[in-house]
């Protein structure tokens, strides 16, 4: 999986995790975290590469956290309670939290493991959930990706295809019915 197929436009790293699954609700969702190598490539592209290499188990955890965070974000925006299993998964990830130190050059040390990066995502999400008014779900029915939207006025996520498909549909719906000349 080429790194350029990943998207980094969610506005926050935890939100970019959602776009590792493309067209989530279509008949052919595109899973981009297909292997430990793909996960490592994504973490490097996010500038969050941990010192330990990602394993197959990390792929399982990354996908699991992605779904749990996505479900909770959608629940929050729909004013529904969190599912118990999502809540449990996120708490489990938080147990890997670690405190990063600053190097002499005032850069943050790398996380030790992929799990520590996932814990960081979970923590970012929980902080962001304090202000759900800054989050939206994409209006495209096969996407419904959560993204940062402080204006509260955006209908589509930053994936260009969503806005263009949505606009084309809206345009067609607003057209008067054409008369048939058979
Ligand atoms: Zn979208």
From TrEMBL:
Q: Which InterPro entries match?
A: ABATE, ABATE_dom_sf, Znf_CGNR
* Record SUPFAM superfamilies: Jann2411-like
One Pfam match, given by its short name, reads zf-CGNR
Query: Where does the record place a coiled coil?
Result: none
Q: Zinc finger CGNR domain spans which residues?
A: 136-174
At the top level of its lineage, which domain of life is listed? Bacteria
Q: What is this protein called?
A: Zinc finger CGNR domain-containing protein
């Amino acid at each position: 999986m080429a790194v350029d197929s990943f998207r980094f436009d969610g506005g926050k790293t935890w939100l970019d995790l959602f776009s590792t699954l493309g067209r989530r609700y279509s008949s052919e969702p595109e899973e981009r975290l297909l292997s430990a190598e793909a996960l490592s490539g994504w973490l490097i592209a996010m500038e969050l590469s941990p010192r330990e290499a990602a394993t197959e188990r990390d792929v399982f955890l990354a996908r699991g956290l992605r779904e749990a965070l996505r479900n909770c974000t959608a629940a929050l925006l729909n004013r529904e309670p969190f599912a118990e299993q999502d809540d449990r998964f996120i708490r489990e990830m938080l147990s890997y939290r670690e405190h990063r130190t600053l190097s002499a050059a005032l850069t943050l040390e790398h996380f030790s493991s992929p799990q520590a990066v996932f814990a960081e995502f979970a923590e970012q999400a929980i902080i962001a959930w304090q202000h759900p008014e800054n989050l939206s779900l994409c209006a495209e029915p096969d996407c419904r990706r959560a993204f940062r939207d402080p204006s509260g006025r955006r209908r589509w996520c930053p994936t260009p295809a969503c806005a263009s498909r949505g606009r084309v549909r809206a345009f067609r719906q607003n057209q008067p019915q054409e008369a048939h000349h058979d």
